[in-house]
User: Which sequence fits this backbone?
């Protein structure tokens, strides 16, 4: 049986740019004619995706699969941790919920997952020429070295050469790279095939003396300095997603509520791509102001985040805006919040049964269930001025909702989803803006409310837009890295 070559990207910290570097390498290798698959053994994310066979995986590996021109496959991310509190997570293995565990419980449990991780990798390696592996956090988190299944522990088991990336934009990149290498054990240090400095702005000639000293101190070559690339690719699915992007002033103002346990924030990336819609994330009623639309996103903790809304005053502010006719859209958990009541009779969220009053903006009633719904689905919107927009999305939720009003959309199987009442809408469908059609309908509606002329450009799907951005990303990284040397170091993998 043939086995793929591999390369692994690790970082000096979370946010060093591992995910996008892996996406770039996936596209570069695919452009060079290779069959490529991404792989991340363990991901911690509230941003997930449902594959065509109804299994759940992290969004970062979905983007990397798209970069490789491959269908997202749960084997690319065999373990997904979805935090439900500061100390506990839902554990998803090969796309299925395995249970809820505290951090200590999972630390003891994870070594049992290594055979499943290796089986997923071996299966991909038998079908592809190259596997691009992404690490998590930093390999120098020495308190987590025991039973490591995602960084050097995995690299040693797979005989994977490692590219160690540091983020110069945050400062201290030389200390990052040298310190990380110094904290590794000798056999782990031997895995490092080269260093990458990422997100560089400035004159490379001024940097060169530092590169020489870094190579001398670490004994590792610097295989590239990647510039700060201004590409718009779905960001890493971390616990602290990049919701602090610079606000771009556009004529339409969409306010997305930044819930404490916000999930699938990439649902709204296509809105940011529209030339007339400015998207900002708010967590304070004083900063909410008078937007053209308020959006309640998905959440891993519907009841907890609803109570947070109630306690900090955002619920009352949203209710007031809705009462004055401002459109409000809820997605998944945000949709559940907009209803009359939420029942948790089985203690799905907090381990104890009970019910909580919703925001009262939609005639719906939700009951949590222990079994998770995971479905990919096409649909067509039937709600008022948004009617006719074609959607291609997916559901990930634990609950069923009884609707006492008009539906938001009709699914391809003939069933209805969501609810619409006046200018308040709710749906379980993530990815609802990806086709571009709902974005255009919404922009036209909001423009009409403000007396503006809507943009006449034809709707562009988010997938098509992402492909052009991935090409730009790959071009920038290819020009910056020593790809010949990277191909050479993979020969021994």
Assistant:
């Amino acid at each position: 049986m043939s086995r793929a070559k591999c390369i692994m990207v690790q970082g000096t910290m979370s946010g060093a740019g591992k995910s996008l570097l892996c996406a770039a390498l996936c596209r570069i290798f695919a452009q060079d004619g290779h069959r490529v698959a991404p792989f991340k053994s363990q991901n911690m994310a509230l941003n997930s995706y449902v594959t065509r066979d109804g299994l759940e995986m992290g969004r970062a590996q979905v983007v990397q699969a798209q970069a490789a021109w491959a269908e997202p496959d749960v084997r690319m991310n065999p373990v997904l941790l979805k935090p439900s509190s500061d100390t506990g997570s839902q554990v998803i293995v090969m796309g299925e919920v395995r249970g809820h565990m505290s951090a200590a419980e999972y630390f003891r449990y994870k070594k049992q997952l290594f055979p499943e991780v290796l089986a997923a990798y071996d299966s991909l390696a038998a079908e592809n020429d190259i596997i691009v592996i992404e690490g998590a956090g930093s390999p120098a988190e020495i308190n987590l070295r025991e039973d490591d299944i995602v960084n050097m522990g995995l690299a040693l088991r797979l005989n994977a050469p490692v590219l160690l990336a540091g983020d110069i934009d945050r400062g201290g990149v030389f200390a990052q790279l040298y310190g990380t290498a110094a904290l590794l054990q000798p056999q782990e240090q031997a895995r490092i095939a080269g260093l990458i400095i990422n997100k560089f702005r400035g004159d490379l000639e001024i940097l060169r003396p530092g590169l020489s000293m870094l190579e001398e101190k670490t004994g590792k070559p610097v295989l590239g300095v990647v510039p700060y690339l201004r590409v718009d690719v779905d960001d890493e699915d971390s616990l602290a997603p990049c919701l602090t992007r610079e606000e771009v002033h556009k004529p339409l103002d969409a306010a997305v509520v930044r819930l404490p346990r916000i999930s699938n924030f990439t649902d709204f990336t296509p809105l940011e791509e529209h030339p007339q819609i400015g998207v900002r994330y708010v967590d304070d009623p004083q900063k909410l102001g008078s937007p053209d639309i308020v959006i309640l996103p998905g959440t891993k903790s519907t009841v907890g985040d609803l109570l947070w809304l109630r306690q900090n005053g955002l619920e009352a502010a949203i209710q007031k805006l809705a009462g004055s006719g401002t459109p409000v859209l809820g997605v998944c958990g945000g949709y559940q919040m907009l209803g009359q009541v939420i029942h948790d009779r089985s203690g799905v969220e907090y381990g104890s049964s009970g019910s909580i009053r919703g925001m009262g903006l939609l005639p719906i009633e939700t009951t949590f269930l222990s079994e998770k719904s995971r479905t990919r689905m096409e649909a067509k919107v039937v709600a008022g001025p948004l009617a006719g927009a074609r959607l291609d999305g997916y559901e990930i939720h634990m609950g069923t909702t009884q609707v006492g009003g008009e539906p938001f959309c009709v699914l391809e199987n003939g069933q209805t989803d969501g609810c619409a009442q006046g200018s308040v809408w709710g749906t379980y469908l993530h990815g609802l803006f990806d086709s571009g059609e709902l974005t255009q309908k919404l922009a036209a509606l909001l423009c009409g409310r403000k007396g503006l002329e809507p943009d006449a450009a034809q709707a562009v799907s988010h997938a098509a837009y992402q492909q052009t951005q991935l090409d730009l990303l790959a071009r920038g990284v290819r020009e910056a890295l020593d790809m010949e040397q990277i191909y050479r170091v993979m020969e021994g993998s």
Notes: Confidence is low (pLDDT under 50) at residues 237-246. Residues 112 and 238 are 24 Å apart (CA to CA).
